[in-house]
Write a structure and sequence with these properties.
Length: about 180
């Protein structure tokens, strides 16, 4: 439910718990509960100055949330990792929409996108520093307000150490412990 709420807020902008409940086919008590939990961990924030009376508007936090895995329990690591597959699928769908629309986007359709795959040979310490540097660069471009002429630019990235052959699980049908 929280992932669905985040996707909806990222895709369509601010909403109330009532609007989210309608859009997601749930009741507002459920969406309100999950919004409060998301807000506790800075995934969403209340939109100040919007709403009347008890009506509260929520938006996705403009800052990327980075969850370091070190020190987390196995359960917490699984929960944190659970946020990634849906976000990656959404990023790929968004890139497909961009590719289909780029001819109609004028200058925004040219020179504003990149795709690539790079491998680096790093020590564990260098890998940790690389990720920290990447997050620092992203934060440099994040803003709370949108300047004139700006638009949303999606940055999706995955960084991981490649497992060695002896670290990978056996293929389906391959007996355990018998690798060639």
């Amino acid at each position: 439910m929280r992932q669905r709420i985040l996707r909806r807020l990222h895709d369509s902008g601010p909403a109330t718990s009532t609007t989210l409940a309608r859009d997601l086919g749930e009741n507002s008590g459920i969406t309100s509960y999950h919004l409060r939990l998301l807000a506790e961990h800075d995934f969403v924030r209340e939109v100040s100055g919007r709403g009347q009376g008890r009506e509260r508007w929520w938006e996705a936090s403009p800052r990327q949330v980075w969850i370091p895995r070190e020190g987390l329990s196995i359960e917490a690591q699984a929960e944190a990792s659970g946020l990634r597959p849906a976000a990656w699928a959404d990023a790929l769908e968004g890139f497909d929409r961009f590719r289909a629309a780029r001819g109609a986007m004028g200058e925004w359709g040219r020179g504003t996108w990149v795709w690539g795959r790079t491998t680096l040979t790093l020590t564990r310490e260098q890998a940790v520093q690389f990720i920290a540097d990447q997050q620092k660069l992203i934060r440099r471009y994040q803003r709370d307000t949108t300047p004139p002429g700006a638009r949303t630019v999606v940055f999706a990235s995955v960084t991981y150490p490649e497992p060695t052959p002896d670290e990978e699980p056996p293929s389906p049908g391959e007996p355990s412990g018998q690798r060639s």
